[in-house]
Design brief:
Fe-S_cluster_ET; about 35% strand; alpha+beta; iron-sulfur; 2 helices; electron transfer activity; about 70 residues; 4-stranded antiparallel sheet; Ferredoxin; two-stranded antiparallel ribbon; Alpha-Beta Plaits; iron ion binding
Length: about 70
């Protein structure tokens, strides 16, 4: 069985530090001072990661799968 992984990035210039991502997925996102950052850039494919990207009020989270942007969703 092949485990799919996604790449997660947070634009530190766009992030407003709301902490919604860190509250939703503390194992993937951490709030560090005024901005959030991914704990790791490669994460297991998980719908909750997309939910975090969708819920970011600044739209600062980008999720890619094999170079194709899949989050935030339109």
């Amino acid at each position: 069985m092949v485990t799919m992984s996604w790449h997660v990035e947070i634009d530190e210039h766009t992030c407003i530090g709301s902490g919604m991502c860190a509250a939703l997925l503390p194992e993937v996102f951490a709030l560090d001072g005024a901005v959030a950052h991914p704990v790791t850039s490669s994460v297991d494919a998980d719908e909750t990661v997309l939910d975090a990207a969708d819920s970011c009020p600044a739209m600062a989270i980008t999720v890619t799968d094999g170079g194709r942007e899949i989050g935030p969703r339109p």
